[in-house]
Amino acid sequence: MQIKNTAINDLNSGLLLDHEENLKLLSKKHQNLEQIIDVIANYNIAIPSWALGAGGTRFGKFGFGGEPSTLEQKIEDIAVINTLTKSANAISLHIPWDIPKDPEGIKATAEKLGIQFDAMNSNTFQDQEDQEYSYKFGSLCHTDKSVRDQAVAHNKEVIDYGVALGSKSLTVWLADGSNFPGQLNFRRAFENTLSSLKEIYAHLPSDWKLFIEYKPYEPNFYSMVIQDWGTSHMLAKDLGEQAYTLVDLGHHLPNTNIEHIVATLMTRGMLGGFHFNDSKYGDDDLSVGVIKPYQLFLIFNELVFGMQNNPANNPIPAWMIDASHNLKDPLEDLIQSIEAIETAYAKALLIDQKALESAQLKNDVASAQRILQDAFNTDVKTILAEARRRNGGAIDPILAYRKLDVRNQLIKERGMNSSATGL
Amino acid sequence: MQIKNTAINDLNSGLLLDHEENLKLLSKKHQNLEQIIDVIANYNIAIPSWALGAGGTRFGKFGFGGEPSTLEQKIEDIAVINTLTKSANAISLHIPWDIPKDPEGIKATAEKLGIQFDAMNSNTFQDQEDQEYSYKFGSLCHTDKSVRDQAVAHNKEVIDYGVALGSKSLTVWLADGSNFPGQLNFRRAFENTLSSLKEIYAHLPSDWKLFIEYKPYEPNFYSMVIQDWGTSHMLAKDLGEQAYTLVDLGHHLPNTNIEHIVATLMTRGMLGGFHFNDSKYGDDDLSVGVIKPYQLFLIFNELVFGMQNNPANNPIPAWMIDASHNLKDPLEDLIQSIEAIETAYAKALLIDQKALESAQLKNDVASAQRILQDAFNTDVKTILAEARRRNGGAIDPILAYRKLDVRNQLIKERGMNSSATGL
Amino acid sequence: MQIKNTAINDLNSGLLLDHEENLKLLSKKHQNLEQIIDVIANYNIAIPSWALGAGGTRFGKFGFGGEPSTLEQKIEDIAVINTLTKSANAISLHIPWDIPKDPEGIKATAEKLGIQFDAMNSNTFQDQEDQEYSYKFGSLCHTDKSVRDQAVAHNKEVIDYGVALGSKSLTVWLADGSNFPGQLNFRRAFENTLSSLKEIYAHLPSDWKLFIEYKPYEPNFYSMVIQDWGTSHMLAKDLGEQAYTLVDLGHHLPNTNIEHIVATLMTRGMLGGFHFNDSKYGDDDLSVGVIKPYQLFLIFNELVFGMQNNPANNPIPAWMIDASHNLKDPLEDLIQSIEAIETAYAKALLIDQKALESAQLKNDVASAQRILQDAFNTDVKTILAEARRRNGGAIDPILAYRKLDVRNQLIKERGMNSSATGL
Amino acid sequence: MQIKNTAINDLNSGLLLDHEENLKLLSKKHQNLEQIIDVIANYNIAIPSWALGAGGTRFGKFGFGGEPSTLEQKIEDIAVINTLTKSANAISLHIPWDIPKDPEGIKATAEKLGIQFDAMNSNTFQDQEDQEYSYKFGSLCHTDKSVRDQAVAHNKEVIDYGVALGSKSLTVWLADGSNFPGQLNFRRAFENTLSSLKEIYAHLPSDWKLFIEYKPYEPNFYSMVIQDWGTSHMLAKDLGEQAYTLVDLGHHLPNTNIEHIVATLMTRGMLGGFHFNDSKYGDDDLSVGVIKPYQLFLIFNELVFGMQNNPANNPIPAWMIDASHNLKDPLEDLIQSIEAIETAYAKALLIDQKALESAQLKNDVASAQRILQDAFNTDVKTILAEARRRNGGAIDPILAYRKLDVRNQLIKERGMNSSATGL
C-alpha cells in the first residue's frame, strides 16, 4: 500500500494551527531554529530489511498480521514510514534473507518509491540450506580454510549485489567466537579473521566503505573475535583507508561510556556507521530512546561536535535502526525510533557550543551541566514536526498511521499469517 | 540404545590400577573420605527433557545427528548418561514440549531404565498452535482474565500429568514482564500473578511442592514480574507451606552474590530447587563450571552448610541441570556438567567446617580463606570416579562415551536429521 | 550568612515577565497545572549534614573554600538552599559526625532558620577515637557480642539525640559484610544483625520509624549482610510495623530495575525512605539526574502512582539527597539535585494516568510509551519556577546563588581552609 | 626485622617428608614437572611500596600494628616476604608517597636485602601540600597548560628518581576524567593527554619502557580519559616503540573477557605490564585469586602461550601485585596473593598445549574444555613448595610467617600506631 500526499495534508490541516503557534514561540526563544529544522529535515536513517517482520528471542516469536513476505513488500513498508516521517529514504539489505533476484527490477521499484540502498549486510552466523560448510564453529575466523573461503566468497557476493543496487558500503558483523574457554585460540582466530577481511576488502570497489562491527557477547557467550571497538579499530587500520568501525548501541558491556568511544573514533576519522536501538541489559534491541534517552542525547552531542569539528575527515556515518520488534507493530515501532533519534539530534543541536566550551575551559562544571540539561529539557516536538511538514510528511506520524488504518490495510493485502525472513 | 554393564566394566578395568593407587593416597590425607564418597555416590541431578536436543540463540541453532525425537528417546538418552555417571536418575519434564501421551507406558519405560520423574515444568511463554489466547503480553500476569485462566488451566494440567507419572513438584518459570516502560502496571501485574498462582497452588496435591523461579530479564528486556529472589520469596510466603523459591544460577544481574542468596533462603527453609548452568554475561546457559567453578564451590559450601545445619527444615532442593548445548554433543555436555557439579560438591565436603568456624569466630580472615582454598585446590577426580565405580558406573564417563561410540550409534538409530522439541 | 527575601525579589523581578508568559502558555496546554504546581510547592527534600563539605574517593578529596565546620554552619548552608529553592526545609543528621552538643540550642537555631530535623543516621562503619571495640569486622553482625552491644548502644544514643531534636525516624545503613569468601558465616551474620536490630527497634519511640537501607557492595567487596531489598524487607517484617525498607538509588547491581522495586515495596506499604543521587557504575553518588534522568522519571511515575493509589497505607517516604560533591560547589550541586528531583516529579505528575491505564489494559504498548514520553519531553522549568516563586523562592536559584556571590561570602566568613566532618 | 635462613630450614624440616612424597607422586604423573618447577622458581612479582600499609575505602581505613613508616621499613617488609616466598625480589615505588631522599643509601639497603627497583609509579591524582596547581580537574589532560606542565615535570622527576635507583620503566596511571556529562571535551582531553605523554616519553632513557594503564571509572565516575585498552594502545602506538599497555585486572567493566585482551596485546607485542588483584564488583583490589581463580588461570594460559609463541617480540611483562589490604595482615595478604599467582601460573604450565591445539583445530570443544580443566584441577601446592624450597624459601610461607611471629616482632619494633603513606 502507498499513502497519498493528500491524505497526509488532510491530517496535517487539523493540527496546523497549534503547530504554527508552537513554532512561533519556539523561534522566539531559539535564534538558530531555522538551521536546526534544516538539519533535521535533511536527516535520513536507513531501515534494515529485517526490521519489518516480527523479531523474537530464543524463547519464541509472536507474529502479527500483514508482515511483508517479499523484498518488494519490505520496500513498500519503508516507503510508508518515509512518506509519514520523510526521514527513512533508504533500506539496508541483508543477504541472504533478502536476495534481490531481479536487481534491476528491485532497484526500479525502490526508486519509484523514493527508497535508496544503504549499507549491505552479510550473514555468516547462520547456516543456509544449500551451504556446503557449517558456520557452527565460526566463519571468517574458522580453523578450516574451506569454511573461511566460503564466508569470504559470500561477502564478495554481497558486495556484488550491492554494486548492482547502487549501495556504497558493506557492514560485516561477525558472530565468530567461542562459548567455552579453550574452544579457540584467540590469536589464531584474530589472524584468520584479519586475513579473511583482507580478501573481502580487496574486492571492495574504490568508492565503497567497509564497516566492521564489534560486539562483546551473543551469540557466543565466552568470547567474540571482534569483542570491542579497540579490536575493530585495529582491524580497520590494518585493512586500509576504506575500512571503518561501526558502533551498534547495544553491543557494549554494562555501563560502557559509548559517547566517549564515539568521540575517540571521530577524533581519528574512524567512525563509519551507527546502529541505533536501546537496551537495559544487553543487546536487547528495543526501540530507540525507550530506556536511556539522555545517553542518546550525549552521543548526539559527540556526533554533532565531531561533524562540526572534523580535522580528521570522518565521513558522515551510515545511520541505521537496528531494533527488534516483538510487541509493537514494527512500523509504529520504527516511526517511534525515528522520532527518538531526531529528538536527540535536535536537542544536541540546541546545545550552546560556545558557552559549553567556555564553561569547560574554566572547569565550571555546574554551568556545563546546566547547558546540556537546558538543551535536553527543551521540548523539540515542534522542530521535528516542522521538519517533516516542510518535506510533505506528517505533523504527527503515529497519529497519521493510525488514522490511515495502515496495518489493517496491510492485513487485507497480505493476510494475517504472512511471514518475513529474518531473526 | 542402552549401554551394557559389562561394557563399562571392561572399560573400567584398564583404569583400575591407577585409580586404586590414587584412592589409597587420597584416603591417607582425608580421614572422612569414605563419607564424602558416600554422599557423592548417593547424589543425583535431574536432566530436563529439553536438554537432549540442540539449543540455540535467537541468531540460530546448529543441529547435530541422532537427536532424540520422542520422549522415549529422551529418556533413553538420560539412561545412557545415568549408566555412565550413576548420577542422573531422573527426568524433568517440560509440557507441552514433551506431553506423555501414554503416561502409564512412559512410566513403565522410564522405570525399566531406572529413570524417575522429577519436577514438572509448565510453559506459558510460547504460543502453541491450538491455543485460544496468546501469551504475547504475559500469562499469569495478563490484564485479560481469560488469558490468565488459560495459563492457570495449563499449569493444573501439568500437575495432573505429573501425578500420573509420579512427580512430586511443579516448577513455574514465568517469562511475564514488559519490554517498554509504561507497558504494564507493576502492581497490577504482581497482583494478577499472585492470584493466578493461588489458583494453581490450590490444585497442588498435599505431598507436592511448588517452586517459583525468578529472573531479572530475558525474554522481556525492561521488567520481569518475578525479577528477583525477594519477589519469589514474597509470593511463596503468600501461597503457603508448599511453596518455595527456585534458584537458577543464570538468572541474576551482573556480579550478584548468589551463594549469599542461597544461604538466606536456607536460613528460612525456603530454598526449593536449584538449576545448574554457568554464564559470563547473562543467562548464557553454558555447561556447568566452565566459567566460574569457584563460585559454584562457594555455593556448594552454603548448600552443604545449610543441609548439615537445618533448624528451619529446608527440604533437600530439587537439583536440575539447565544448560543449552549448541556446540557440544549434548550428552557429553551433560556428563561434563554432572562432573562439574560433583566436583564442586566433593570439594565443599572437604572443607574443614570446624576449623572454618573457629577462624570466622576469631575473624582470622587469612586462615578462613586458606581453609576454603585448600579444599578447592584438592583434586577430587578420584572421589567422583570411586563414587561412580561403586555404583557400577564408569571411572571416566566421557572416555567411555567416546570409546563406546555412542553418538554414532544414535545417528545410526535415529538418523542425521532427527530433531528434538525445545528451545 | 543568610539571604534576604528582598534580594530574591529583586533578582526575580528581572525574570518575571518571561516567566509569566511561559506560565500562561503552559496553563493553556495542561489543565491540571495548578494542582501540579501545588504538589511541587509543598514538596521538600532533606539535606544530610555530610553533604555540605567536600566528599571524596579513596584516592583523595579536593577541598574548597568556605566549608562549614560546625553543625550551626551546616544548618545555615541548608537554610541558604532552602531560601532559594523553598524545597529543602530539613536536615538529616549523622552521628557522630554532627553530634548536637547543645540540642536545645541547635533546635532553636534550626527553627529560627526554618529547618527541621528529618531522619537520624547512625554510623557503625568507622571507628571513632574514643571507641572501645573496632568495627573492622562488622558491627551489628559481629561475631563478638561486645561489639554488637556497643553498636546497639550507639544506635540507641542516636535515637535519643533525635528525640531531643524532634526527629521521627532512624536510618540504619550497615557496612557490615565481608571482603573474602569464608570470612564470615552468612547465616550467623544475618541472625546477629536481626537480633541487634530487634534491640534497637525496642528502643524506638512509638511514633518513630526505622528505615533499613540495603547495599550490594562497598565498602565490603565480597558480601554485604543486607545486600538487597529482599533482605531488608525480610528484616523489616521480622521487626514489626514501625520498620521499613529504604531505597538509595546508588545501592543496586548494574542494570537493576529500581522502579520495579519501588512499586513492589509500595504495593506492600513497605517503602519508608528514599535517598537520591545518580550513578553510572556503582554507588557513584553523583548529583541527581546527571546520568539517568529518564530512570528517575520512571521511578517518580511509580512513586506518584503509589501515593495516589495506596490501599497498603504506605507512608510518605522520607526524601533525602545522598550525593557526594567533589568537583562542584556543594550548594550549587544540591540546588541542581533538587531541581532534578522536582523536574522528574513534575513530569511524572504530567502523565495522563487514565490514558496510561487504558493503554495498558489494551496492551497498546506504543501508546503507553508515547504517553510517558510526552510527559517526559515536556519542559517543566516554569512549573518549578512558579512553585518556588509562590513560596518566596528564586525563579532561577543557581543564577541567584551566583549573583548573590554566596560562596565568596562564605569564604570571607569561614576562610579558605575550613573543613567539614564527613566522608 | 629479617628472617634467618636457618629459621626457615628448621621450619621446613618438619614438613620435608610429606613434601618429598608428594613431589615423587607428582613427578610420576607429569613428565615436564622439572621444567615447571624451574619456571616457577625463577618467577618474581614486584610489590608496590603502598601495599605494606593499611589500604582503605572512602568510608574509612582500619589500621594495624607494626605498619612500616619509612621507605626502608617497606623494603624490609618486602624482604620478609621474599625470604619466605623467594618470589618477591623487587619493589615498585610510588612517588611522592615514597620519595627516596637518599637514593644511593636506599639502593644499598635494598641491594643488601636482595630487593631491586621495578617500575616507577607517578601520582597526579592527588594534590600534595607544596603543589602549585591542583589536579582537581585533571593533570595530563587539564585544560590549563600550567597544570599539564606541572604534571609532566612530576613524571620526568619520577623517571629521574628511577634512573638513580636502577629502575627501567615508568607506569603512568591517570585518574583524569570527568564526573559529569559536559564537564570536559573528550577530544581536547585526549589530545592534551597525548601531547603531555609525548613530553614524558621524550624524557625516557633509551633502555626504559613506558606503561600506560587504563581504567573505565573511579575516581571519576562519568568518564576516564584512558578508559580502555583500545585507548591505551592508541596512545602507545602514537608514542613509539618504548610505550606499552599495562593491564590491571580490576580495571575493567563487568564481565570483560580480560584474557582475550591479553591475547590481543601479546599478538601485537604491546603488553608491557600486569597488575594482579581480584574483584567481584569493580576495582575492589582484593587479594589475588580469592574471587575468580579460574579467570586468573585462563589469563595465565594466554600469558604462557604468548611467551612461548612470540613472533611480535612482546617483552616479558612487568608483574606487580596491586591489591589493597584492609582486613588481613598485609604481609600475609601479599604472601597469599603470590601463592595464588603462582598457582595459576603452574596450572597453566600444566596444560597440554599440543593436545589443546589439536582439539581446537578439530573443534572438539569438549576435549579442549577437559584439557584446561584437568590442568586447573591439579593440585600444584607441591610444585610451588618445591620451587621455594630450592631457592631456600619456606615450604609453607604463611605457616612460617605465623610460627616466626613476624607481626608481633614488627609491632615491637615499630609500635602499634605507626602508619604508612599510601591510599
From TrEMBL, chains A, B, C, D:
It comes from Pseudotamlana haliotis. One of its GO terms (molecular function) is metal ion binding. It comes from the Bacteria. Keywords: Isomerase, Manganese, Metal-binding. The keyword Lyase does not apply. It holds the Pfam family AP_endonuc_2. The lineage of its organism: Bacteria, Pseudomonadati, Bacteroidota, Flavobacteriia, Flavobacteriales. This is Sugar isomerase. Residues 98-285 form the Xylose isomerase-like TIM barrel domain.
